[in-house]
Amino acid sequence: MRWMWIDKFTQFESGKRAVAIKANCLAEDHLHDLYPAFPIVPQSLLIEGMAQTAGLLVGETNGYKEKVVLAKIGRATFERLVRAGQTVEFEAVVEQLNHIGASISGVIRTISGPEKLQVGTIEMMFSHIDNNISGTKFPAHNFVFTEHFTRIVTAFGEKIDVKI
Amino acid sequence: MTKDEVYTKVQQVLVDALGVDDDEIVPTAALMDDLGAESIDFLDIQFRLEKAFSIKIPKGDLTPEGLTNNPEFVQGGKFTDRGLAEVASRMPLADIAPLRADPKVENMSKLFTVDFMTKYIFSKVG
Question: Which residue, of A35, B82, B102, B108, is most buried by count of CB atoms within 10 Å of its CB?
Fold first, then answer.
């Protein structure tokens, strides 16, 4: 199973902008890896959450025909820590997109009730790797956008609550 | 827009995209060999140039596609005479002398200099 780093999309404008959220639970091992007595979400994993949010946004634009991979993190700045019990919001905006790839600007926030606090900002680039400038060849099947992964997008708008 | 103005903006784009100091950006500097650019950086640079100069760079115009994997143009890791002619035709603003002197495919990276990028943009906005 692919390592999912977002729980659901809360906003999705095809080819333009997407917002996803992730709840952070004290039971997750990675919170304890950096500072055992002070559990926080590592910033590298916040970048991963943004990459998944933005990668799905870019991939959905072309109907998941391209293999979209994170190719460059131009800048990532953080001003707050994310701690257990906080929900994180990843907002990704497509700045530019063409047949080779896309550039994305992203903002990470924590959500606590009605309050949202900015955690950091990220600029990242994605490559449509079959159209890479260097001409490197990759397997034909789309190993990036499995049904399991794109299901997060198709589930957008579905209610979470299910009565049985 | 003058060529000096174009050069100054191109210089800033390269500083932002490649994380180099502005004094490293000299006209003869090759983006890959001297400034450490990788293939994805060319897309980053293209996007930043489009934004900085409010232009749209057509597909394959700045970085020609389909040259190095075409057996008519490249054989045994070197550009053929026809390949060199194709490079010259598709990159008329580039100084292809280094490639003519040693037509190894990897030497194509030497054509993408700061001077070439400046000339290319100047041809669009000058």
Answer: B108
